[in-house]
Amino acid sequence: MDCRNLHLLTANGSPQHTNKVVPTERLDLQILTANYSSHRKPFHMVNPEGLHSYLIRLQSFGRCRARLDGKLELLEPGDLLLFKPGEPYELRIEAEQNQLGEKMVSSADYHIFLSGGWVDEWWEKYDRPQKIKVPLSEGIIGAFRQIMLEQRRISNPTPEIAEYYLRILCLDIDRNFLQQPLPTYPSYLAHRIKNYIEENAASPFKLEDAAAHVGISVSRAVHLFKETFGTSIIQYALEVRLNMARERITFSPLSLEHVAESSGFPNYNYFHKVFRKKFGMSPKQYRQTTRNHGI
After folding, report:
1. Domain limits for position 137
2. Are residues 50 and 126 in the same domain?
3. Euclidean distance between CA atoms 257 and 244, whole angstroms
4. How far are the Cα atoms of 110, 144, 242, 283, 284 from residue 288, in angstroms, in the given order?
5. One domain for residues 161 and 225
6. What are the tens digits of pLDDT across the range 202-226?
7. Are the CB atoms for 143 and 165 separated by under 8 Å?
8. Nearest residue to 61 via CA among 83, 44, 41, 37
9. Distance CA 135, CA 193 (A)
10. Distance from the Cα of residue 173 to its chain's centroid
């Protein structure tokens, strides 16, 4: 077991050494390769004998085709492939017709090949399909990018960072999988709207912005969201902003006015009103209460 000395600070701020040791966790998880690929020319890859490791591949731009359950299926942005060792794999990137009716080769993706006991356990938790839909959010895209950047470091004394990012990515994939047990197109649009709200709650946005993000009308966006989640877009945005503000009141030194502004509220008076209605006390009282109780 690896050990590390702990350095504590004395009352005057100088380091104090202690003989106490803590174990260093080693993750049974190997990232074999993590990359981003962009194709402007036809590409064909086939492995009929099956992969030797797990594969997580996210179509981020353009279109291509992959063999899923014996059939070549079209992949579009947001399509995430999950392959386990031993599964045959075929990928075809050819000219596809765009919205202008032109045929061109255009495809980009993030992909990670991985192995290890942790991913074995993660995989076995659910009966995983080879393809699921996920939002192209900064959370998921950011995790792919961070893993890729960490793997490219020439000198990296903390390789565990990439492994933790990968675990977060896998758990985020699970969350999207569980939230979309029936991968219908309307449900997928509703989840994309939900993701847009969560990513943009700190800034003012209109219903038109959320609807335009998924390319549908405002009335259809409002209906789909209500039907899928049982609440309105406006009410959900308010809940996200209030929870954001509550965390900042509790854990940050920001003034209450700054908390309101940075959490997406148009003015402090409105924030004060909705916060009191939600939590039963004013923002100031909430801050005092949480600090008095050491939360």
Report:
1. 30-179
2. yes
3. 14
4. 46, 40, 17, 9, 6
5. no
6. 888 999 999 998 889 999 999 999 9
7. yes
8. 37
9. 9
10. 8
